[in-house]
Specification:
This protein is of the alpha/beta class and 161 residues long. It contains six helices and four strands; from the N terminus they run αβαβαβαβαα.
């Protein structure tokens, strides 16, 4: 399942977090649902925190662990992976694999001393603009609680491999 190559996505993460990473919310949004839901929220002039930065992937299943680790290494306070509700995934059940992958990462984060809640997973459909708004406010609240020291600790922990 390709759209952008891995190195292109990694470069997008680098660009996103180049300046003031602590103020950003790094979002991976599936093209068919969450990206469209975010778009609808914008078109409907629904207000939500403006500091989310979205990387569009064809499916949440395209979000490799490597992308998430890379975002944390680059100083992301919060990473949100968002895709279609289970029955709506355009790649059969790829989002169920997304859920397994994210659950595995929550365990790994915990083992590395990184709060798992800094990695969020949400299902938002193309029609759920107000749900997108709600999710964005919730992740922004989480972001505000991540201190600069915590981000630095994370970067240190991840640099050890
Ligand atoms: Fe949206 Fe798979 S196509 S999560």
């Amino acid at each position: 399942m390709r759209h952008f190559a891995d190195d292109q996505i990694l470069a997008m993460i680098d660009a996103m977090l180049e300046e003031k990473p602590g103020e950003k919310i790094c979002i991976f949004a599936c093209n068919w649902c969450s990206y469209a839901g975010a778009d609808l929220a914008g078109l409907s002039r629904i207000q939500y925190p403006p500091n989310g930065r979205v990387i569009r992937t064809m499916c949440s299943g395209r979000v490799d662990e490597e992308f998430i680790w890379h975002a944390f290494k680059k100083g992301a306070p919060i990473v949100l992976v968002s895709g279609c509700h289970f029955v709506d995934c355009h790649y059969i059940d790829a989002n169920r694999w997304t859920q397994k992958r994210i659950e595995g990462m929550w365990n790994k984060l915990e083992r590395k001393g990184i709060r798992p809640e800094r990695l969020q997973l949400e299902w938002v459909s193309a029609a759920e603009a107000s749900r997108w708004q709600k999710v964005m406010y919730a992740v922004e609240e989480l972001r505000k609680k991540v201190t600069r020291e915590e981000i630095e600790e994370t970067q240190k922990a991840l640099s050890k491999g």
